[in-house]
């Protein structure tokens, strides 16, 4: 006889009375269909769970399927609660399977187009679900406070309103496809330096006006499912244990009803009392929830907090239809049908973002687009990123479909056709050549530098590096004359190797040593310096395919180390490598010598002399840690200057993740900022250069003239910090607000961007609507081609400031993007919410109207005001 053991009826079932309880019980015994998701009683589910089942809903675990996601919540099979899988972005879904490589989020922000942001979000949500994921870890809505931050590429710029509008739209897109969005990182996670330990001291007003509005919009305007708290401290406590952030602002003021998740290993003591719900990754010991589990029922207050956290997760899952098969007694996990990944549909959005987000910074004498006059005599493209697409940089992104990626060189040739000769010179070699055996020396005692040096001086010494493999059963060392294990010579999957020896160079100078890999990772130790290639072990054991901006011609990741070496000296080196468990390791140890560097530059300059037009492609690495300079790396400034010196018809195309300085700007005719344009970027750049599309992007952040022209200049407490305190004592003067307040002239201001069309604005007006205003202006295309324009509306500060309330000269209050055919005209109406006329009161802890008449500026950038009107808000 089958024995049926029933769990105690939940309190809610008991309240329904005996008849209701019997009806529910009979339904379970009869195998009745599960309740619809909207009818699932989350309270009953929580009451029916064991302690371990509750912990499984709020603590990360190892994904048994190994899909390559960032995190995993196991769910509760007994109750029909499915697992939750999270995937990194933000520029596409990072998983074991391929996904569309989208342009960097700052390119999306540069479009000033919330509608496009929603379509971008739909790609993320649709592909996340198609790849078995449920939660997208994004968008990243921190403010780009410092241009040196390596993750500026993942943000939406320096303005809170623009970031809020683009971020909220992306969230709506993600969640419209049935995936959850997890907006990050609350709060002020604006730099890499000190983020794990430093206390970021920020005034309440600066938080409310600058750093929190994008999170507020994510909650109030987009209904975001989850919020990720950050690593750094904010005004004392760590962000994940900061009650003012996680409870006072997030839940009490904004009404957030989703769940809060820690950044990976960011959960701290007191976090769960402050408002944290889910601990990630949950696989490191000891976890905070693990400690709670050890105390168990002996801590009723902790159990109450645990139930609260589980409830928040389940309520959100119910909202997304993930509890359709759940039951307090016996459930069966039911997940809404997953879509099929539509590569072409996603690629179309990627190309649109890359095209609309590109910013034409300069275009003297209308050098661009490359018309008949510019193409006559041939076009020369210079730079490694002309022949290899710099789709993205760093990690936490999709790497795209390789068969769809087309270089700008090939795309431009296809676009302009065979009648236009397009040549290419690399200018700067990012790949190098295999280091020859003559430069390498090995010894039986590789740790003895003196012995190595003595052997290397002998004319009969055997050349190469000694190799030890951890998997060799006899432990015997081999000698490799060169390290070039590519193609058929790849090393076996699952292995680990170490090479050691001396490097000797024939001539003194600057060398680029390069570790090039595929199918694993490698680390080079040279004297006291170490560089490493793409990681293994992250995201369920999935290695990032590459970390360099572009790969070698045969698809290897490149990690360079620039060193100055002296001829005749012997430099000790050690190189270790590990192959993925299921993939052979390709590895090459290469270099670029001073002679090779000079040759590449000379060939590019000579070719530029005779070209009708030269387009130099330059790039920035976009990798951690934060850089101390905004100059282009790898001698690219010198390359551009040398090309411009011999050909006045020079344009520059930039693939960057943050602002860069341009000491050569006055010597070139045009500059096109393509950001990191994603897998379709080659076609998008070709369309823009050839004139098939007109640039319409606008800068979402200010470009300084020099490294020493940022808010951290001369103020070490604002970046490096003092005694582990980072002072945000600039207050509300961030980005263009800081430049305007100080009267500093930037290289390019916030909102700047040119195009191939011409527009005229007229009849600016402001009218009161409700408790706010509407700004309106007529825009007419007076050019000869279809093009887009962006109207930015700024609110100037009142002539008389309230006592003790410093305000920036102007702040973005609204914007609108419009595309018109030649002769087309439209009347744009841009809402100006009452919030734009308010400031945060630290005394009253709330928003208060700033009295007085305000000038409303209709502008093409923060420094290019075209028309004005007046507005006086009602008290």
UniProtKB/TrEMBL annotation:
Residue span(s) of domain Fibronectin type III-like: 789-862
GO MF annotation: an example: hydrolase activity, hydrolyzing O-glycosyl compounds
SUPFAM superfamilies: (Trans)glycosidases (SSF51445), Beta-D-glucan exohydrolase, C-terminal domain (SSF52279)
UniProt entry keywords in alphabetical sequence: Hydrolase
SMART domains the record matches: Fn3_like
GO biological process, one term: carbohydrate metabolic process
Pfam name, any one: Fn3-like
Superkingdom of origin: Bacteria
PANTHER family: BETA-GLUCOSIDASE
Family assignment from sequence similarity: Belongs to the glycosyl hydrolase 3 family.
Full protein name: Fibronectin type III-like domain-containing protein
Natural source organism: Siculibacillus lacustris
């Amino acid at each position: 006889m089958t024995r049926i053991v029933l769990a105690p009826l939940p309190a809610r079932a008991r309240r329904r009375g005996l008849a209701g309880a019997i009806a529910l019980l009979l339904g379970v015994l009869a195998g009745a269909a599960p309740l619809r998701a909207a009818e699932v009683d989350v309270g009953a589910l929580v009451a029916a769970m064991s302690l371990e089942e509750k912990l499984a809903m709020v603590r990360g675990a190892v994904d048994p399927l190994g899909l390559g996601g960032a995190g995993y919540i196991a769910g509760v099979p007994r109750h029909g609660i499915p697992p939750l899988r999270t995937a990194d972005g933000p520029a596409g879904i990072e998983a074991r399977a391929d996904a569309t490589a989208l342009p960097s989020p700052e390119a999306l922000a540069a479009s000033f187009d919330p509608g496009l942001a929603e379509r971008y979000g739909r790609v993320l949500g649709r592909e996340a679900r198609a790849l078995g994921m449920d939660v997208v870890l994004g968008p990243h809505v921190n403010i780009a406070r410092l241009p040196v931050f390596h993750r500026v590429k993942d943000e939406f710029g320096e303005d809170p309103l623009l970031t809020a509008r683009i971020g909220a739209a992306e969230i709506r897109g993600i969640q419209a496809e049935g995936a959850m969005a997890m907006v990050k990182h609350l709060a002020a996670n604006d730099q890499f330096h000190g983020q794990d330990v430093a206390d970021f001291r920020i005034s309440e007003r600066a938080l409310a006006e600058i750093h929190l509005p994008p999170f507020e919009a994510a909650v109030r305007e987009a209904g975001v499912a989850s919020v990720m708290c950050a690593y750094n401290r904010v005004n004392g406590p760590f962000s994940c244990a900061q009650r003012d952030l996680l409870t006072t602002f997030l839940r009490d003021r904004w009404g957030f009803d989703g769940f809060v998740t820690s950044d990976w290993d960011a959960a701290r003591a007191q976090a769960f009392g402050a408002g944290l719900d889910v601990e990630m990754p949950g696989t490191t010991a000891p976890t905070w929830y693990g400690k709670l589990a050890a105390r168990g029922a002996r801590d009723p207050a902790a159990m109450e907090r645990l139930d609260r956290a589980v409830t928040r997760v389940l309520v959100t899952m119910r909202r997304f239809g993930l509890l359709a098969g759940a039951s307090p007694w016996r459930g069966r996990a039911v997940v809404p049908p997953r879509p099929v990944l539509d590569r072409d549909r996603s690629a179309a959005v990627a190309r649109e973002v890359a095209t609309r987000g590109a910013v034409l910074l300069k275009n003297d004498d209308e050098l661009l687009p490359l018309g008949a006059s510019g193409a006559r005599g041939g076009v020369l493209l210079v730079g490694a990123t002309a022949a290899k697409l710099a789709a993205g940089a760093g990690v936490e992104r999709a790497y795209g479909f390789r068969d769809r990626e087309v270089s700008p060189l090939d795309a431009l040739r296809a676009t302009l056709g065979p009648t236009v000769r397009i040549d290419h010179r690399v200018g700067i070699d990012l790949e190098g050549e295999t280091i020859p055996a003559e430069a390498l020396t090995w010894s039986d005692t590789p740790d003895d530098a003196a012995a190595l040096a003595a052997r290397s001086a002998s004319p009969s010494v055997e050349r190469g590096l000694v190799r030890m493999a951890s998997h060799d059963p006899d432990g015997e060392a081999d000698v490799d004359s060169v390290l070039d294990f590519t193609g058929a010579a790849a090393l076996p999957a699952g292995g680990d190797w170490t090479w050691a020896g001396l490097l000797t160079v024939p001539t003194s100078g600057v060398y680029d040593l390069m570790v090039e890999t595929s199918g694993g990772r490698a680390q080079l130790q040279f004297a006291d310096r170490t560089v490493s290639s793409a990681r293994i072990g992250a995201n369920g054991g999935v290695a990032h395919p590459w970390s360099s901006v572009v790969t070698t011609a045969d698809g290897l990741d490149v990690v360079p180390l620039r060193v100055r070496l002296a001829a005749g000296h012997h430099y000790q080196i050690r190189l270790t490598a590990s192959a993925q468990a299921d993939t052979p390791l390709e590895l090459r140890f290469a270099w670029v010598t001073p002679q090779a560097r000079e040759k590449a530059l000379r060939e590019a300059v000579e070719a530029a002399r005779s070209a009708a037009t030269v387009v130099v492609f330059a790039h920035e690495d976009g990798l951690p840690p934060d850089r101390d300079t905004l100059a282009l790396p790898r001698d690219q400034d010198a390359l551009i200057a040398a090309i411009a010196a011999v050909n006045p018809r020079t344009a520059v195309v930039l693939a960057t993740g943050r602002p860069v300085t341009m000491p050569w700007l006055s010597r070139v005719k045009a500059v096109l900022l393509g950001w990191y344009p994603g897998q379709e970027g080659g076609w998008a750049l070709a369309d823009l250069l050839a004139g098939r599309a007109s640039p319409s992007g606008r800068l979402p952040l200010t470009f300084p003239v020099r490294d020493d022209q940022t808010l951290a200049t001369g103020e070490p407490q604002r970046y490096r910090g003092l005694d582990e305190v980072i002072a945000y004592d600039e207050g509300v003067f961030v980005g263009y607000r800081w430049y305007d307040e100080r009267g500093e002239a930037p290289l390019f201001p916030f909102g700047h961007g040119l195009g191939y069309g011409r527009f005229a604005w007229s009849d600016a007006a402001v009218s009161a609507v409700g408790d706010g205003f509407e700004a309106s202006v007529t825009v007419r295309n007076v050019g000869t081609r279809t093009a887009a324009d962006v109207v930015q509306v700024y609110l100037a500060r009142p002539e008389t400031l309230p006592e003790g309330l410093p305000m920036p000269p102007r702040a973005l209050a609204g914007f609108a993007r419009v595309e018109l055919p030649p002769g087309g005209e439209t009347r744009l109406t841009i809402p100006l919410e009452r919030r734009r006329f308010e400031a945060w009161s630290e005394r009253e802890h709330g928003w208060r109207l700033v009295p007085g008449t305000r000038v409303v500026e209709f502008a093409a950038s923060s420094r290019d005001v075209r028309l004005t009107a007046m507005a006086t808000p009602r008290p």
